[in-house]
## 1
Amino acid sequence: LFEPNDIITEALIEEELRTVVENFEPRANILNIIVESEREGQGYRIKIIFSVKNEKGPVTFTTFLEATRGN
């Protein structure tokens, strides 16, 4: 979270999230990951939309990543 606050960092966070979910939660089928910078560059709103194998309907998980260093 100490990288430049730009679209490249958003894409890197998305890629890392996708890799982690694919590696550690094989039941999840990722439909979309949305990473948006918020709070004047102080963090990122994360939304992961996925389906669970053998279950109906998508699931949406939303969280906020923020730097806590120095707080």
## 2
Amino acid sequence: GAFRSAGAYQVAVPTTMILYSLVMAVGVNFMPMVTTLLHRNEKELLAEGIARIYEAAFVVVLPATILMAC
């Protein structure tokens, strides 16, 4: 009912804000490096760095998802 929807909203909003803050923090810190690598035409190094970021994100997000599901 209505209480269940309100409860889901109370969990979803803070979780979304935390994820948004993390994405913005990473973006702000890595944007100068990305711009420099693109300017130097070092696309392979950039692709490798992005792949490592995806791997690290997966290692963090998967356990967090499992913990939230329990």
## 3
Amino acid sequence: SKSIFNNLNLTTENFINQIGYSLEDMIINCQFNLEDCSYKENFESIFTYAYGNCYKFKPNGINKSSKPGRA
């Protein structure tokens, strides 16, 4: 017997990407440390077979800090 993925000529990853939520669907507004952020620039899409579509936040300079003394 063939699976639904074989019948539709889709891989599991492609299938879950198509039926899963995108970051655009989930984020209305983004702020980190009182700075605006963007789902296009500050998030990385990651696919896992256990959880499907996952997203990792990357501050890209938003989380700047300085500390006096030795580095």
